[in-house]
Amino acid sequence: MADLTGWLDDYFFGTLVVLQVFFVALGLSVVFGLIGAAARLSQSRIANGIAKVYIVVFRGTPELLILLIFYYGIAVTLTNVARYFEPTAGFVNFPPFWAGATAIGLIVGAYMTETFRGAFQGVDPGQVEAAQALGMSRFQVFVYVRMPQMWRLALPNFGNHSLSVMKDTALISIIGVQEIMFVAEMATTVTRKPFTMYITVALIYLLITTFITISIAYLEKYANRHLRGSR
Amino acid sequence: MSFNFDLVWSSLPLIIQGLGMTLKLLFLSSLIGLFLALFILLLRISGRWYLMWPAMAYIYVFRGTPLLVQIFVIYHGLPQFDFIRESIFWPVLREPFGCAVLALSLNAGAYVSEIMRGGIIGVDKGVKEAAMALGLPRWQQFIYVTSPIAIRLALPAYSNEVVSMLKATALASTITMMEMTGVARTLVARTFAPYEIFISAALIYLALTYALQQVFAWIESHASRYVKKER
Questions:
Q1: Has residue B231 been placed in a domain?
Q2: Which of B1, B80, B181 minimises the CB distance to A80?
């Protein structure tokens, strides 16, 4: 423990970065998941095909590789674009935070697509018909009837996917985001106590994932509160 | 900005040199992970708190922390202790290969044992009762009645786990292993053509994922052949 003195503030700010990446990536994964599910459920064959390719590619490629493609790929593309307008332009650096968060969002979004698709299909068609019979517009049916019931069905898998988002955030230290893995590396070079430093990272992650698990369990209980009396 | 296809063709054979290492990591760690998972599972379902408790703690820790952190704790962290450097395990733990296999196996052990437990929970209670009524001893009930059904039930989840283990082997590149991602990263450092090289690597991973899924689909249909007959 004594070895950690002086590093705790670095770990604290590193944890804040991890949480930032987590929330941005989780938000993006929900957005990509909803778009993907909408495409999968649509009548359009093209949208369906694109969504299928998206799922296969992002679920079949290592997360690290996607992260590297994004980070270096965007940098190279931006540099080329810059040089097109200004031939003497130097190398353009893309913020690794956004490259990482987008990559993680896309990866987990592929998993979310399948979860949301299943959840949308799980909503009782009678409910949708009843809403239509009441004269609700398609938009109203979506927002007031399908969405609230879809969330409830998607929650258990959503919880697992948000845990994957959390665990994938560890990868972004590889592309140079200064989060807790980076802090541990820095602290190791100074103190020569790698185990202490990396085990601290593990404990922080364990704490956060435990918190996520508990929150999801609570949310599930809240989402299923209407079922409590019937059992 | 142009996509250089010649570079793809010239780099593919180089990346494939890393394929052997990727497959070696995958095969060894899934094999060790399987045995470990079985051991953890037996502890977990033993019904004795002093056996269940360590198994649950193990699963909790290894599923709650990122694999990358586990790899770093083992590879960078363990040498902090003199007793590890002097132990008989040092020749294994000194090499990045040994550390990668150890981390991947430990991680897989936790996930696979939960998958196996899911399979066992799914076995129909009546079947277990029937086995009990036949007077089979507990271990025979487990081996001859519960296991065959549980394995079939757990296969789809297990095939997903093997695919994610394939993707996880890419993380070994962070501790200097020259598997496919590692080779791709050194090639990118030399040529600075991230799209061409990383996408070539991604294509090989996708092909491997597809092959694994096909193999498991065949095993699944073989294992469930009696289900089809019943219909």
A1: no
A2: B1
Give the confidence band of B91 by pLDDT, cuts at 50, 70, 90.
Answer: confident
The answer to whether the CB atoms of B201 and A171 lie below 8 A apart is no
**Residue A113 contacts by C-beta under 8 Å, 6 or more apart in sequence?**
A32, A33, A36, A37, A40, A51, A54, A55
Which architecture, in CATH terms, is A2-224? Orthogonal Bundle (1.10)
> Residue type at B90?
W
Task: Name the residue among A56, A171, A206 with its Cβ closest to that of B65.
Answer: A206
**Residue A93 has what DSSP assignment?**
P
> What's the total number of domains in chain B?
1
Task: Kindly determine whether residue A174 and residue B169, on different chains, have CB atoms separated by under 8 Å.
Answer: no
In tens, the pLDDT along B93-143 reads 889 999 999 999 999 999 999 999 999 999 999 999 999 999 999 899 999
pLDDT interval class at A143 (50, 70, 90): confident
Of how many residues is chain A composed? 231
Q: How sure is the predictor about A87, in pLDDT bands with cuts at 50, 70 and 90?
A: confident
Mutation target vs A (from B4, B62, B72; most A CBs, 10 A cutoff) = B72
Q: What CATH number is associated with residue B28?
A: 1.10.3720.10
Domain that holds residue B114: 5-224
B20 touches chain A (CB under 8 A): no
Burial A37-52 (b: 16+ CB within 10 A, else e): bbbbeeeeeebeeebe
ipTM (interface predicted TM) = 0.90
Q: Cβ–Cβ of A63/B170 closer than 8 Å?
A: yes
